[in-house]
Design goal:
Layout (H helix, E strand, L loop, with lengths): L11 H6 L20 H7 L4 H6 L1 H14 L7 E2 L6 H5 L5 E3 L3 E3 L10 H8 L4 H4 L1 H14 L5 E6 L1 H10 L7 H9 L1 H25 L3 E6 L7 H7 L1 H17 L7 E5 L6 H4 L6 E3 L6 H8 L5 E6 L8 H16 L7 E5 L9 H15 L3
The chain binds coproporphyrinogen III.
Subcellular location: Cytoplasm
Keywords: Cytoplasm, Decarboxylase, Heme biosynthesis, Lyase, Porphyrin biosynthesis
GO molecular function: uroporphyrinogen decarboxylase activity
Length: about 375
């Protein structure tokens, strides 16, 4: 049974994701509901991060904060959740430590360790384990009342595997490199298991009301071209291939799919043929070069300014916007670009600088 909600008043993102000609590029930013907003800290209070994710009322309130603050400038909401809810659903403990980030007290150690087999063999009831995400999505759709579309998301198998093995953030990626270069087959079994859960989790999010989905491969850039082809790309393709089939089996219409293989600029050409409607990119890629690589393929780009420009002056923000607009927009026939940053917005940014970023994109792209 498909849920019904108020009709969309602003469908720019959906049209742009489908490659249609639009009056201006839609805009939103990754991590738009987060620590740079004073109202985020206020609403979160002393609560634990994952507790907020598990409370649909809190999660929907946080999701709506940037929509309210940037009303008229922002064209999508992204559900307040985290990529690490999947390892949690797989039975792993994940904590969020203030000012440090995620922490797994028991990361996967080696294929001979009992925990690896246990996680691999465990039958995960995704719909049940992550029901709180779906409740938050449905409630957020109601509260949005058609203002902008709602994006659902998951972490990519490679990125999730990194966290499950490293146990948190890392600079060296020594554990996960040990896994893939010593135990490639055991690694691939786990990557495949995660990929199947990603498909399930995205399908449940769409059933609950997500109108677009994004797969975050935040650590794709840690792999060289050959290793990326072996340990990341096949699982991203599994998701884009299986999700529409899974949705069809549930009698639910498919939605546009976004992939963000951060740092994998060397793989942009093949990313444009992975079955995703939208390819996100970070600031290591020049917009004009990206457009050349895409050629005539009907793929929309998303990105890509360095989030660090928001620490800079108004002039530096304008310069970054001009580079994106000239590369992604001018000469592309008013299509093929969703404006975003090249990664999540960072704590400490002045929210008014994000407003200025949006206003500059608007000013430099509106049709005369
Ligand atoms: C790698 C990753 C994670 N989570 C996510 C990614 C992929 C995107 C990326 O690469 O940035 C995805 C994510 N995390 C969060 C969202 C919410 C929606 C949105 O984009 O506004 C999304 C889409 C909230 C969050 N997720 C987290 C916060 C901060 C929690 C807090 O209040 O302290 C928020 C608002 C915590 C989190 N969650 C994660 C880390 C590494 C951290 C801590 C460190 C950091 O933020 O830099 C894992």
């Amino acid at each position: 049974m498909e849920l019904t909600f108020e009709p969309l008043k602003n469908d720019l993102l959906l049209r742009a994701a489908q490659g249609q000609v639009v009056e201006r590029p839609p805009m939103w930013v990754m991590r738009q509901a987060g620590r740079y907003l004073p109202e985020y800290h206020e609403a979160k209070g002393g609560r634990d991060f994952f507790e907020c994710c598990r409370d649909p009322e809190v999660a929907s309130t946080l999701t709506l904060q940037p929509i309210e603050r940037y009303a008229g400038l922002i064209d999508a909401a992204i559900i307040f959740s985290d990529i690490l809810v999947i390892p949690q659903a797989m039975g792993m403990v994940v904590e969020m430590i203030d000012k440090k980030g995620p922490h797994f007290p028991n990361p996967l150690k080696s294929p001979d360790d009992g925990q690896y087999e246990e996680v691999l063999q465990r039958n995960v009831n995704v719909a049940e384990e992550l029901d709180y995400v779906y409740k938050a999505i449905t409630l957020t759709r109601k509260k949005l009342a058609g203002r902008v579309p709602l994006i659902g998301f998951c972490g990519a198998p490679w990125t999730l595997f990194c966290y499950m093995v490293e146990g948190g953030g890392t600079k060296l990626f020594s554990q996960v490199k040990t896994w893939i270069y010593r135990y490639p087959e055991a690694s691939k079994k786990m990557l495949q298991k995660i990929a199947d859960i990603c498909v399930e989790h995205l399908a449940c999010q769409v059933r609950a009301g997500a109108q677009v989905v994004q797969v975050f491969d935040s650590w794709a850039g840690e792999l060289g071209p050959a290793s990326y082809k072996e340990f990341s790309e096949p699982y991203l393709m599994h998701i884009s291939f299986m999700l529409p089939r899974k949705l069809a089996s549930l009698n639910i219409d498919s939605v546009p799919k976004i992939v963000f293989p951060k740092g994998a600029w060397h793989a942009l050409n093949s990313a444009c043929s992975m079955g995703y409607d939208v390819v996100g990119m970070d600031w290591l890629q020049s917009p004009a070069d990206a457009v050349k690589i895409r050629g005539s393929r009907n793929v929309t780009f998303q990105g890509n300014a360095d989030p660090g420009i928001l620490y800079g002056t108004k002039e530096s923000i304008t310069r970054a916007v001009e580079e994106m607009v000239n590369g992604f927009w001018v000469g592309s026939g008013n299509k093929g670009w969703i404006a975003n940053l090249g990664h999540g917005i960072t704590p400490g940014v002045d929210p008014d600088n994000l407003k200025f970023y949006f206003e500059e994109i608007h000013r430099l792209t509106k049709s005369s």
